[in-house]
Backbone:
C-alpha cells in the first residue's frame, strides 16, 4: 500500500490518493472523521482549529461502504481558504503585490522556511511554509484511519498516549487494556494517563502561551495483536521497525524515535534487556517481558508493538527568535504566524496514524494484496503454524 498527499495549508483542500487497500474492507466517512476530530483536539491548539471542522469526502475506491481495491481518494476542505482565496489562488495576480501575496522574507528558525527557499529558489517563503506546515498531517491521519480500519478487521488494535510535555513526565503510564487507555486519554485534554501530570502539563502549556513560546514532548503508540514474524531481517528496507522509525521521524517537528525501551537499552546489560522466550499450547511462543517493543531482527515478536516519538516545540513563535531578512540580509525578528503553543496531543494521534499505516502495509504485503478474505485466511493459517512451530 502507498499514498501520496497534496495540498497547501491555506489552499482549498488537502487530498490523499491511497493505492493498494484490499477490496472488501468496510469503510465509512465517519470512521475517518472520528480520527480527524481527534487530531484537532488538545490543550494548546491555536485559533486555526476553531476555524476548521475537518470532514472527509471519499471520492473514489469505496462503493456502498466497502473498498473496491481501486485507488481511494480522500479530500478534506480547508475552511480557512475563504480568507486566503487571493493570497493562495492558482490564477496569476493582476499585479504583483507583496502585501496581497503576504510575502515572507524572514525565515523562522526551526521551520523549513530557509532551507526550503534555498532548495526551490523561492524568494517568498510562503511557498515553503504552505506545504511544510503540519496542516498536511490532516490527510495522513485520514490515510491512517483507513489503515486502522484494516488492522481492526485483522485483529490489531492501535492506541496512543502522551508521556511528556514541556519537561513534565507522566508517572502513571500503565493500563489494563487498550480500551481503557483509549477511554482515559480521550477524556484528557493532553491525552495523558496520569491525572496529576495532566494538570501540570496544561499549566506548562498555558505558561508557554502567555510567554509567546511553545513546548514539545514525547508520545507513545502501542499496537496489540500483530502476528509474529511480520517484516524481515533479510534486507535493510524490509525491516519493519526501521519503517516505523522513519514514519515517526516523518511527522512534522519530530526529532527522534524509540522502539521498546529504546535508548535505555544502552544503560543495561544484555541479561536485563532481552525478553526471555516461553511456550504453551494455547498461546505458542510468548515473552516474559517486552523490552524489545515487539521487534527482533526487523520482525514482529507477537508482543505489543511499542513506539515512541519526540516532538520539538513548534518553531512558529509569537515571541519570534532572531533571523535575517533574505532580501536585505539585515538581522530581524522572524516572521510571526498564527500557531499552536503545543501540538503534542494532536501529534500523538498523527503518530498512531503513521504507525497504523506501516503495520497495515506490512500485513497486506505479507499476507495477500487483493482482498480481505484471503488476507484473513492467510493470517489465521500463519498464526496456527507459528503457535505449534
Ligand atoms: C495546523 C494548521 C496550521 C497551524 C499548525 C498546524 O494552521 P495555521 O498555519 O493556519 O495556523 O496551526 O502548523 C504549524 C504551527 C506549523 O508550524 O506547521 C494543523 O491543522 O494541525
Residues:
Amino acid at each position: 500500500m502507498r499514498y501520496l498527499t497534496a495540498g497547501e495549508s491555506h489552499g482549498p483542500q488537502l487530498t490523499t490518493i491511497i493505492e493498494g487497500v484490499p477490496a472488501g474492507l468496510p469503510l465509512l466517512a465517519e470512521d475517518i472523521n472520528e480520527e480527524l476530530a481527534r487530531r484537532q483536539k488538545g490543550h494548546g491548539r491555536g485559533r486555526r482549529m476553531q476555524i476548521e471542522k475537518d470532514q472527509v469526502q471519499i471520492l473514489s475506491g469505496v462503493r456502498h461502504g466497502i473498498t473496491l481495491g481501486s485507488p481511494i481518494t480522500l479530500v478534506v476542505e480547508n475552511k480557512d481558504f475563504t480568507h486566503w482565496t487571493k493570497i493562495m489562488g492558482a490564477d496569476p495576480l493582476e499585479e504583483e503585490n507583496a502585501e496581497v501575496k503576504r510575502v515572507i522574507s524572514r525565515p523562522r528558525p526551526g521551520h523549513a522556511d530557509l532551507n526550503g527557499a534555498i532548495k526551490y529558489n523561492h524568494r517568498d517563503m510562503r511557498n515553503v511554509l504552505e506545504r511544510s506546515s503540519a496542516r498536511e498531517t490532516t490527510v495522513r491521519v485520514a490515510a491512517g484511519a483507513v489503515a486502522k480500519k484494516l488492522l481492526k478487521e485483522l485483529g490489531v488494535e492501535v492506541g496512543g498516549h502522551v508521556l511528556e510535555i514541556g519537561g513534565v513526565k507522566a508517572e502513571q503510564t500503565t493500563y489494563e487494556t487498550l480500551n481503557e487507555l483509549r477511554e482515559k486519554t480521550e477524556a484528557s485534554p493532553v491525552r495523558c494517563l496520569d491525572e496529576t501530570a495532566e494538570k501540570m502539563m496544561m499549566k506548562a502549556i498555558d505558561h508557554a502561551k502567555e510567554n509567546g513560546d511553545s513546548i514539545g514532548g514525547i508520545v507513545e503508540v502501542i499496537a496489540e495483536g500483530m502476528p509474529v514474524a511480520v517484516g524481515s531481517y533479510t534486507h535493510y528496507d524490509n525491516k519493519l521497525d526501521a519503517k516505523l522509525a522513519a514514519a515517526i521521524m516523518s511527522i512534522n517537528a519530530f526529532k527522534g524515535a524509540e522502539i521498546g525501551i529504546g535508548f535505555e537499552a544502552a544503560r543495561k546489560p544484555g541479561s536485563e534487556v532481552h525478553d526471555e522466550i516461553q511456550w504453551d499450547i494455547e498461546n505458542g511462543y510468548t515473552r516474559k517481558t517486552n523490552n524489545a517493543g515487539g521487534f527482533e531482527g526487523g520482525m514482529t515478536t507477537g508482543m505489543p508493538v511499542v513506539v515512541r516519538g519526540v516532538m520539538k516545540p513548534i518553531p512558529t513563535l509569537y515571541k519570534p527568535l532572531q533571523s535575517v531578512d533574505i532580501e536585505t540580509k539585515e538581522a530581524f525578528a522572524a516572521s510571526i504566524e498564527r500557531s499552536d503553543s503545543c501540538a503534542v496531543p494532536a501529534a500523538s494521534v498523527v503518530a498512531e496514524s503513521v504507525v497504523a499505516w506501516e503495520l497495515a502495509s506490512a500485513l497486506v504485503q505479507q499476507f495477500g494484496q487483493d482482498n480481505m478474505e484471503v488476507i484473513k485466511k492467510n493470517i489465521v493459517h500463519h498464526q496456527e503454524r507459528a503457535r505449534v512451530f
